[in-house]
Amino acid sequence: MSIAVENVSFAAGNNIVVDGVSLDIDKGRILGLLGPNGSGKSSLLRIICRLRKVQSGIVRLGEDDISLIPRAALARRIALVEQQSSTDTQLTARDVVGLGRTPHRGLLSSRSADDDAAVEDALDRVDMLHKANQLWQTLSGGERQRVHIARALAQAPSELLLDEPTNHLDIQHQLEILSLVSRLGITCIVALHDLNLAAMFCDKIAILREGKLVAAGTAGVVLTETLIEDVFGVRAHVERSSVHGRFNIQYRLGQRQSALSDLPSEGGDRTRQSS
């Protein structure tokens, strides 16, 4: 296994955020981490890269207990792309991506030609090379997200953790980023809200609810109509797509959603076709 989480729990104050979760992912595979808001996805990612201290359980990278890996070695191995990150410092997109090379340099070392090449390549792979010299504060939300992913790529990790990497991105860049991640050939754990994107790009899916692991397995096993309604509170129809061959989820209007759809539109009354 590349990453193994063994009966891990974490609490913030008296609130249990991650509750006895066990899961694993093989080397070079993509694990999609799904669940409603507040289910513990982001906290679990932070636990895996040791930004949160577990109260019980073990996280392993290969055979190594993550708590015993030196910080510098861990930083060279794991890259985390978080949902939101900001700075008031006047940095260009190239400067931000260059931060990904920090674990590979000594404390007082300057950037090498290899560092510069890694930064240029990372920017190019996320379609941001043309914005390399633009100040961070002037970038759109989607552009900042792509720069953060480029920073992680420049780090050259063997394990990549992404917390909602498609947040703020248009459909084209959502597909491009996840396609890129799927071609990296490294171990990835991706927290997502979009079940269809998870079914398209993830080798394995884990579902969290209220900090507990509800199900884990392939999309065909995990993303059932019963589980989707139970965990996410929506009715759905699941079938294999004739376009890409992966499972596709089509949502139906449930009782709560139907009540909202009965509201008149701006132009007056609207007719709703029942699913």
From TrEMBL:
<dbReference type="InterPro" id="IPR027417">
    <property type="entry name" value="P-loop_NTPase"/>
</dbReference>
<keyword id="KW-0547">Nucleotide-binding</keyword>
<dbReference type="InterPro" id="IPR003593">
    <property type="entry name" value="AAA+_ATPase"/>
</dbReference>
<dbReference type="GO" id="GO:0005524">
    <property type="term" value="F:ATP binding"/>
</dbReference>
<dbReference type="Pfam" id="PF00005">
    <property type="entry name" value="ABC_tran"/>
</dbReference>
<keyword id="KW-0067">ATP-binding</keyword>
<feature type="domain" description="ABC transporter">
    <location>
        <begin position="3"/>
        <end position="235"/>
    </location>
</feature>
<dbReference type="InterPro" id="IPR003439">
    <property type="entry name" value="ABC_transporter-like_ATP-bd"/>
</dbReference>
<protein>
    <submittedName>
        <fullName>Iron complex transport system ATP-binding protein</fullName>
    </submittedName>
</protein>
